[in-house]
DNA sequence: GGCATGACATTGC
DNA sequence: AGCAATGCCATGC
C-alpha cells in the first residue's frame, strides 16, 4: 500500500493533525502509474477544491530525490506546468511517457488518463 | 498578524 | 483556439 487512505488523509488535514503540504504528498502517492491528476483534482480530494495553487506550492518544495510521484500532477487542461523548466520539464514528460501516458503536442488527454480516486473503498 | 508570492482554475475577450 | 484578467488560499517573512 502507499499509506493511509484518501479519506484518512482528508480527515487528518481537517483535524489539523497534518499540514496541507503533508496531506498533498500523501494524496499524490495514491495516483497510480499510468494516470495523471490536475492540481485542482488533488486539492479537491483533500476537501479544498479551491486550493489548487497550494498543491503546486507544496510540490515545488519537494526535494529532487523524493518518493512522491510529482510528475503525475499536471494542469487541468492537460498541459505540463513545468514545461518551461529546463530541468524538470523534459523529465516530467519522459516519466509520464515511460509510464504509458501519451503526450501529444505537449498535452495529455485528460479525458482518458485522469486519475479517478476510488471512493468505493471508503471505511464504513 | 499583515503582506507578498505562486508547479493553478475559470471566465471573458 | 489562445491570451489576459481575477479569484484562491497555504506559506514564509
Walk me through the topology.
Blueprint: H1 6-14, H2 20-28, E1 37-38, H3 39-45, H4 52-60, E2 73-74, H5 88-98, E3 103-104, E4 107-108, H6 110-113
Parallel strand pairs: 1-2
Antiparallel strand pairs: 3-4
The structure holds a DNA duplex (13 and 13 nucleotides).
3D structure, described in words:
There is one protein chain. The protein has 124 residues and is mostly helical. Helices cover 40% and strands 6% of the residues. It contains 6 helices and 4 strands, in the order H-H-E-H-H-E-H-E-E-H. The chain has a two-stranded parallel sheet. Strands 3-4 form a two-stranded antiparallel sheet. The protein is globular, with a radius of gyration of 14 Å. The chain starts with 5 loop residues before the first helix and ends in an 11-residue tail after the last helix.
Give a quick rundown of the structure:
With 124 residues, the protein is mostly helical. Helices cover 40% and strands 6% of the residues. It contains 6 helices and 4 strands; from the N terminus they run H-H-E-H-H-E-H-E-E-H.
